[in-house]
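Quick one:
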Amino acid sequence: MSVVRDLRVLLRFGNFRRLLAVRLLSQCADGVYQVALATYVVFSPEKQTSAGAIASAMAVLLLPYSLIGPFAGVLLDRWRRRQILLYGNLLRAVLASATAVLMLSHVPDWLFYVSALCVTAVNRFVLAGLSAALPRVVDAERLVMANSLSPTAGTLAAVAGGGLAFVVRLVVADSDAAVVLLGCALYLCAALVSLTMAADLLGPDREQVPQRLTAALKGTAHGLAAGVRHLTAPQRREAAWALGSITLMRFCYGALTVMVLMLCRYAWSSGTDEGLALLGLAVGISGVGFFVAAVVTPSAVGRLGPGRWIVVCSTAAAVLELALMLPFAEVSVFVAAFVLGLVTQGAKIATDTVVQSSVEDGFRGRIFSLYDVLFNVAFVGAAAVAALMLPPDGRSVALVVTVAVIYGAIAGAMARFERQ
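Output:
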């Protein structure tokens, strides 16, 4: 199996193994923490959650990061990325512990959201650092392979963490706080593994960046503008188009995520435990799609190129999402979860590869932080649109058709760009 062979090749790089271990532990903890939040906000028996409430929660958790994201990007190009992985995971462990305490204390919702917001902000910082550091641990020849396997393995780890959280919640302890504490333990493990790498290993190169933090903060606006100019240069047009495409695909995925949440909560279940089980199944099936994307994307990108592979993914999503989601039946929606997991992750692997191969090392932190900001804004915007369009039980023909049209527009725009 080619994916196993590729993984063996990459695992010969000792520093890649260490960075991958940090990613797996960190994103597994993310999956645990995110499921704990979902069950607390959406599936608590005492809460009658609406699509608007879900959208509000997403806005509170994700939109503020859009304000600090550019600052994080500039700092990623100045601070040692190994230290970011170490202290970021330690900080998340502490903040997640505070979230568990707040869950048990039955505090006002706004205080709980503040704690969760802090964990989420650090989370995006760490993920951007992982992506920016990847070219430092593999050679250029194997960068596409690493981009296929490493982020996808992290996504699968997040799915596995989510599955573990469902098991703990449904079988071991009927407590969201207990699930959060499991995530804390995994964050601590990720921090410890990061110590196995040299402090300067992951860059950036010290001679390329100012040493003083005050200088870095003062130069944030200038550095961000330079990052945008770097991205819009003619030789990096494909990276800009790929980022635009994956942002819109993230919007579509977010809207359908809210729909599936509402379907599991109200249309397909009579109780919170049954709804949780259905949501866990949908997440697991989507995770299988992520894995298949890791298997097929390297060869597809090799034959077609990353841009044309994005065209294929968005075209498949436009056709199959419409056919599979409209019946609003459990089986067809679960098949759609697999398809959307495959095409979304496949397009993301292609985008990561284009950005990493065309952006210089001194700008990667800024570009990947902008990448994360686009992801967050798209997901929150999708949740807001879904809140306006979804009925209480989650069945909305208009939303399904709108998403299919957006996928089709992505395919058409990218196909035109590739022809040019």
